[in-house]
Amino acid sequence: MRYKTFGSTGLELSEISVGTWALGGKDMGPVDEKDAIEAIHAMIDQGVNFIDTAPTYGRGASETIVGKALSSGKRSQVTLLTKCGIRWEEGPKNFQKGAIRDSSHDSIMKQVDESLKRLQTDYIDIYLIHWPDVNTPLEETADTLKELKRKGKIRFSGISNFEDADLEQLYSLDVLDVIQFPYSMVNRSREDLLKKYHDKGAATMGYGSLGAGILTGAIRQLPQFEPGDARLGFYDFFVEPKFSRVMKLLKVLDKIAEQRHVPVAQVTINWTVQHDFINTSLTGVRNAREAVENTAAMAWQLTAEEIHMIDQAVYQLDAEC
Question: What is the CATH number of domain 3-216+264-301?
Fold first, then answer.
């Protein structure tokens, strides 16, 4: 495993981390709980020391699975990240319906206790505001995060999916330890922000590095997802014409993977983590086989020539889209 210093936190974290959105089992197709727990254990056994989850992933299901996976004595081996800022009224139990953005003091204080219970832990290492809440002043949210730090419920704080103006304010309020944005060959829309706050000393995380599976080579035909599958609403590359354009990019990854005798996913992972401004990249896994395959990517690195080949294909994709 390879590790990087995580911004200004003092943590040394694995270059890849466990992404658990799919493990919620409600947004990206069914997941077997036993397989999910074995996947988390396999990642840890291979040296991964960072797990990312959130209450929104399966409305608590992902956090519950992570809690079960760590209850066997592995909690001390990992840095644990979860998120806040979204709650539900009574009604449909999924992210698309019934979810309300709420980063107010009272809501976050309730959310953190619910997460601690599901995760079976008494503290959270990193706590991110998942999405902006336009109805709550940032000062109130920042003060709440500072209160949680004082109480020992969280160690570090930050955001996922905010715009730069809010980032600047949160940075000035001294609660922007970590930022998390999508980052992959098929989504570089927040690259400038990742670079900017990396240079300011914030820890940086890229999510969606495998493009919900499209950059593993496992998806070669336009998929027909079940109604309500989050991949259709959250990503723009599972529809034409972008899907076919991504398939052109895959041909370049195929060539490198074939020459190196490795799976395409390992090429994808290395391209992401070999960017200096990415401290760790979230990689989703559903079972132990995928976990072992993904972590094996850390045993080697792309050459400058291979990175150039991929970059040219990525730039072509951006130009066409």
Answer: 3.20.20.100
